[in-house]
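Give me the fold.
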Amino acid sequence: MLASEPMATPDIAPITIPDGFTVWAGSDWHGQRAAADRLLARAGLTDGADRWIAPPGTALVITGDLVDRGPDSVGLVRRIASLREQAPALGSLVAILEGNHEIQVLGGLDGVPEIFEALMTFGGGATMLSAGMPMGAWEDRPAEELAAYLDTVVPDLRPTLRTFAPYARWRDTLFVHGGPVPDRDLEHFRASSERLWIRRRFFESPDSFPEADCWSAYREAGFRRIVFGHTPLERATTFHDGLALCLDTWRGGIVTLARIPAEGSLEAAEILEETAEPRAVADRPVDPDRLRRLDGPITEFVDAWAAKGRTGVVGARPDDRP
């Protein structure tokens, strides 16, 4: 596929994990391949490298953001994708879910200016660096050139990112990158990128999940617990009286893997931690107004890109939608 062709994420179905499986989950590993290898080995899922060794009936769920910021985005994506290929033959399952950083790579390099700005502001240079581009060589270069470089040097990267699922389900647990969106039905939840960017409107909401009316669509679908990432915290932290667990631990300088209990409070999750390597490329400085612009309204541009991309129109603004 040429870099100028549309690469919007296809309509990948949500993943259902069998009830009887043992489930481990991680989020926001951001290019930390070495730390991820250590975590997966400690959990007994891999040999510490590229071989899946977990017992049958084991699932690994990654709730997005494998790319950007850390030292080996390309290597980490390839590692988890390889494990995903191996697991079914051994009676197991690896579910890779999309995060906002995967969408920023795809939509940004498709040439949507607002998504490209977010990509290059929030650590996207690290993905280019992991693909062999010299430090800083991505600065002031257009999306088309960076896309062409990636597609030449690591032609499997963007196609692999486009296979990541919107969310996963196990028993009464929803796995998703950002969280559920209040006052929306499940069709909107699946179709809209709000589930990738939502933060405190979910986990600091005064409306208890899942009992409050604003969460009725999730409650009626049988979801009572949420495992998510996206908002960096010092350590894995529970919200909503133990029914929501955030696994984005970048603020603490660690990456985390959790064994999810089959029922009850997520405070009972077994938590493994490994120290993260320093960021390969720092985020660009942003003032609060610009940060809010890149972290909230961007979902309108992402949704427009996804809709237009499936019909071959890339980079349309929200007011161009039919």
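Residues 56 and 89 are 9 Å apart (CA to CA).
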